[in-house]
Amino acid sequence: HRRSVHLAETIAGDTSAGHATAYCQLVEALSGAACPPRANALRVAALELERIANHIGDLGALAGDVGFLPTAAYCGRLRGDVLNLTALLCGSRLGRGWIRPGGMAHDPGTAVDEVRRRLAQTERDMRNAVELLWKSSSVRARFEHIGTLAREAAAGLGIVGPAARASGI
Fold first, then answer.
1. pLDDT tens digits, residue range 137-151?
2. What is the pTM of this model?
3. Contact 52, 78 (CB under 8 A)
């Protein structure tokens, strides 16, 4: 199973825990194996840390897209801090090699307490980064009316689905 889990982990670099968990849950369901409650809790922690890191990275990318580098840089550091929390728990910033069919490769023990402490600081720092971004009227203006697709243009391009509906089709 190690090779298969590794393949699942590397489908997308920023979703290693998500893909490994999905693979392991499939194998466990097909084999009738149960994952211990502690391992399930650790999987949730891995998934949440991955989600938090990805959302922080996305917010930083949005800030960079509109040329607001203070928040972009701030988010880059914060994303790295969250990835480092995953490394503290399992030895890999992306959580690779941690989630296995039937459980986890190892239990981080009391490192979970340190993760909680650092996450509280990261939350405070993230709130500052978001406030910095959205308090700037010039930044808010850069997000307004961006990516609007006029009804006529959408019809001419043959756009369908949600993009078509958003354009008034």
1. 999 999 888 888 999
2. 0.84
3. no
Contact 85, 133 (CB under 8 A): no
Q: Are strands 103-104 and 99-100 parallel, antiparallel or unpaired?
A: antiparallel
Phi and psi (nearest 5°) for 100? -135, 155
In sequence order, what are the residues at sequence separation of 6 or more whose Cβ sits closer than 8 angstroms to the Cβ of residue 137? none
Mean pLDDT of the chain: 93
Under 8 Å between Cβ of 102 and 94 = no
Structure tokens at 151: 């009804």
Beta-carbon neighbour count of residue 9 at 10 Å? 24
- The DSSP letter of residue 100 is E
**Helical spans, DSSP H, in the chain:** 2-9, 16-31, 37-65, 69-90, 111-134, 137-143, 151-157, 161-166
User: At residue 53, what is the residue type?
Assistant: A
Q: What is the pLDDT of residue 57?
A: 97
Percent of the chain, pLDDT > 70? 98
Sole residue written with tokens 């043959």: 158
Q: Which helix (H) or strand (E) holds 99?
A: strand 99-100
Query: Can you tell me whether residue 104 is helix, strand or coil?
Result: strand
Tokens encoding 156: 């001419």
Q: For 101-119, how does the pLDDT look when each residue is reduced to its tens digit (9 = 90+)?
A: 999 999 999 998 999 999 9
